[in-house]
Design brief:
The chain has 606 residues and is mainly α. The chain is 57% helix and 2% strand. Among the domains are: 21-116; 304-433 and 514-588. A hairpin with a 6-residue loop joins β2 and β3 (359-362). Bound molecules: zinc ion.
Amino acid sequence: MRLNCGLLAAAAACLLGLTAAGCRGGSTGGGKGGSVEDARAFLEKAEKEFLDLSIEASRADWVKSTFITDDTEGLAARANQRSIASTIALAKQATRFDGVALPEDMTRKLKLIKLSLTLPAPSDPAESEELTRIAAAMEGTYGKGKYCPPGRECLDINGLSRIMASSRNPKDLLDAWTGWHAIAPPIREPFKRFVTLSNKGARELGFADTGAMWRSKYDMPPDDFARELDRLWTQVRPLYDKLHAYVRIRLRETYGDAVPEHGPIPAHLLGNMWAQSWLNIYPLVAPKGGDPGFDLTERLKAKKAGELDMVRYGERFFTSLGFEPLPKTFWERSLFTKPRDREVVCHASAWDVDFAEDLRIKMCIEITGEDFSTIHHELGHNFYQRAYSRQPPLFRDSANDGFHEAIGDTIALSVTPAYLVSIGLLDREPDPARDIGLLLQMALEKVAFLPFGLVVDQWRWKVFSGEIPPEKYNQAWWQLREKYQGVRAPAERSENDFDPGAKYHVPANTPYMRYFLAHILQFQFHRALVGAAGHKGPLHRGSIYGSAEAGRRLKHMLEMGQSRPWPDALEAITGQRQMDATAILDYFAPLQKWLDEQIQGKAVGW
Ligand SMILES: [Zn+2]
């Protein structure tokens, strides 16, 4: 299966719109109760079926993604359908063990089957069918979304994103922003109905609403999980506020009074359609002399590194930690370069096609510093997938949905100048005085993201719970964005708009909090692992390359898969059972000091 889509994640995606509640009314259930032996036999059968059908779907998906035609799309869709049907049948049968006292691992497996649903449809077949239809239509509306400026060519989200990233003309930026957000109003009414129906399904399953069901996936009571998020945000907020204040000052130099001295920043000036990453405006906010002192892309080209060499650098990173080299089939079956003669999905991804040894990446590699990091990230997924492949099928996934991405990113954080020196790509480490530029770029990407990572599901949870009624959808969205991100809508908004619908994950019904978690966890992992590697200097200069001890700890955690509650997995690497955002503060400590100097005497907050 692809990248962070482990067995259950895949099942969750597949179950879109299908009734879990129907699973309760089981004609196949044979009544409540059942012995431990019954449950064991059931789970054995369930895991075998899951595995067989997932592998089949995975193969079809691989072929489709590396050779897009009507035929391969049809075959992949059919394989997915088969997998869906089986999952539903198994979920139905699983309910007969509700309330039966079973060994812990068996209870956990049964719970994981139930929680694999992201969209609980009501048991009424007509309502279930309606929900399926709405879900597909919303995603379709988003996917087909285009802005057609009068007299010019139509632009899709990729074209509009390029404008958001590179244009410095406020009029053009506003035009692209408003143009894209105009695709969303038609999603508003279907979304409203979607909320009603999926809540009905969630309640039939025993959850207060769909949001509460999503929050139940984190091995703690849903409300405790929400409180955890508040705690993490409180830890990191002072750093975000300073970054925000600094960026606002510098943006005023470019855009003048369009950017207020005290208030929120207009959301179209931050280099990204959702203001979720500010990396694209680095040239506008870069410190003087802020270039990193080397250009990895140039260095790779000077070394005449090819696509496969890039991947071998990545593999050597992991073998230096004590991991086994990648299997021969990885090199035979992966897609490393963009084929000249057919359509492929170029977006980088990591796969374990047979949920065991058949690891692959699919990536149209270019010889750039960015792709060099991305390869390390993708291989992080692959080594995670292989590490948990000895777990029972239902446990072959990351500890929670934030962990997979966090591991990939943790590895990428170790791609430091010192690491580049030790593998011969750089002659010597650049002067530490140049670190501010690198750290600022990292913060524009990762610190700037944090409040957006919170907002999407803060909004959605309140919508599902009814705290935000339909007549306040848009107003509440902007209240949250202003409160957390300190950005404001660049144009007048009303309840005729539906701006949350202009973010993919809302019409596609994909939970979003995992990205916030991944951003917190990766720094916590990094701090613990470079510590294990004996690194003493600043955190951002630490790399775990070559450390057997860091490798041992990492491997131990990866091998657990999702067999245990995630705090156990976190503890295996960090010794902590709680998520802790102070690692971000440690990592960016030199930048924080520098920001303090830049914003001295200036307004902070909004
Ligand atoms: Zn990833």
